[in-house]
C-alpha cells in the first residue's frame, strides 16, 4: 500500500488469512490484516441527520419519564432516576445547541438527578466519549399473522414485572407521549412495545424491555415476543420498528439482526456538567 490511507466500504466477508470486503459493486477487495488502520461499522444505507433526529424524537416520546420540559430544542426527561432513557436530555430540534448546558444542569439539579445528555451521533459537535454506547437498529414493518402463545396487555401485570426483574416503577414503564403501549408476555419472556409518530409523519414501533428468565433462554421465547410486538405495531399503523441495544449486549444484537434489524445510527450518554466544567 502507499503512504496514503484508502477507505474501503462494503460487507466484511472474512478477517483471515486476508481481510475480504465485498463492495456494493465490483470485485471483492483483499487487504493484508497488517495494513488495516481502523474499522468502523456503517449504517445499512446512508442516513441523513434529519432522519436520526426524527427517529430520536419518536423514541423520546416512547420513553419520556414522568416529567418533561422543552428548553431551546432539547427535551429534558425526568423519572426519579430510573433508567437512562427516562432521565436524560436529548437534542431534538435543529435549534439545539450546547449554549444551554448550564440551564440543563440546573434543571436536573433541582430534581436531585445527574444531568445526563442522550447524544445521537452527528447531531451536535460534542466529542466526549460518554458511557453506554448504544446501537439503534431499524427494520420495516408489514402486517403478519398473530403469534399464538403471547398475551398482550395495556399495563404490565405481576407476572410481567416478575420476569422483567428490574427496579423500574410501573409509572415509568407506562409513560408515553401521544402514542400507544402494549406489554407482551409469553410464559417466561416479556417485552414492551410503544408506537409513536416522528415529526416527519413516520409511525415507529419501539421494542424494549425484552427479557427472558434465565431458565428459559435460547428456547425461542424472545423471538416470539418480538414477533408479537411487531405484529401489534403494524396493527397500530407503524411502518417501521427500532430497538436500542448496548454495544456490549451481543446476544440481543444477534437476536435483532436475525429478525431483520439493521444499524441506523448510534448514541451515547454524556454528563452535561462535565462539558460545562471544561467549556
From TrEMBL:
Keyword Transferase included in the entry's annotation = yes
Question: GO MF annotations for this entry?
Answer: acyltransferase activity, transferring groups other than amino-acyl groups
PROSITE patterns hit by this protein: GNAT
Where does the N-acetyltransferase domain lie? 136-279
Entry keywords, A to Z: Transferase
From which domain of life does this come?
Bacteria
Q: Does the keyword Glycosyltransferase apply?
A: no
Q: Which Pfam families match?
A: Rv0428c_C, SH3_Rv0428c
Q: Which InterPro entries match?
A: Acyl_CoA_acyltransferase, GNAT_dom, Rv0428c-like_C, SH3_Rv0428c
Q: What is this protein called?
A: GCN5 family acetyltransferase
Amino acid at each position: 500500500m502507499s503512504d496514503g490511507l484508502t477507505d474501503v466500504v462494503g460487507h466484511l466477508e472474512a478477517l483471515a488469512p486476508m481481510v475480504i470486503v465485498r463492495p456494493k459493486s465490483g470485485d471483492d477487495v483483499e487487504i493484508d490484516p497488517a495494513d488495516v488502520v481502523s474499522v468502523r461499522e456503517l449504517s445499512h444505507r446512508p442516513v441523513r441527520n434529519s432522519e436520526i433526529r426524527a427517529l430520536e424524537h419518536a423514541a423520546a416520546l416512547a420513553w419520556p419519564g414522568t416529567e418533561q420540559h422543552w428548553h431551546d430544542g432539547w427535551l429534558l426527561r425526568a423519572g426519579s432516576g430510573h433508567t437512562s432513557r427516562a432521565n436524560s436530555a436529548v437534542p431534538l430540534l435543529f435549534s439545539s445547541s450546547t449554549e444551554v448546558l448550564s440551564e440543563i444542569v440546573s434543571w436536573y439539579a433541582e430534581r436531585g438527578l445527574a444531568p445526563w445528555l442522550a447524544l445521537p451521533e452527528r447531531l451536535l459537535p460534542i466529542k466526549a466519549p460518554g458511557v453506554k454506547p448504544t446501537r439503534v437498529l431499524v427494520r420495516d414493518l408489514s402486517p403478519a399473522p398473530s403469534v399464538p402463545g403471547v398475551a398482550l396487555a395495556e399495563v404490565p401485570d405481576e407476572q410481567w414485572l416478575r420476569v422483567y426483574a428490574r427496579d423500574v416503577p410501573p409509572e415509568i414503564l407506562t409513560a408515553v407521549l401521544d402514542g400507544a403501549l402494549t406489554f407482551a408476555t409469553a410464559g417466561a419472556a416479556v417485552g414492551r412495545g410503544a408506537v409513536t409518530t416522528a415529526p416527519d409523519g413516520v409511525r415507529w414501533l419501539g421494542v424494549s424491555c425484552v427479557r427472558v428468565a434465565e431458565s428459559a433462554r435460547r428456547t425461542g421465547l424472545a423471538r416470539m415476543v418480538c414477533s408479537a410486538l411487531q405484529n401489534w405495531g403494524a396493527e397500530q399503523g407503524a411502518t417501521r420498528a427500532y430497538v436500542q441495544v448496548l454495544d456490549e449486549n451481543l446476544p440481543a444484537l444477534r437476536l435483532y439482526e436475525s429478525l431483520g434489524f439493521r444499524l441506523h445510527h448510534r448514541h451515547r450518554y454524556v454528563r452535561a456538567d462535565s462539558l460545562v466544567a471544561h467549556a
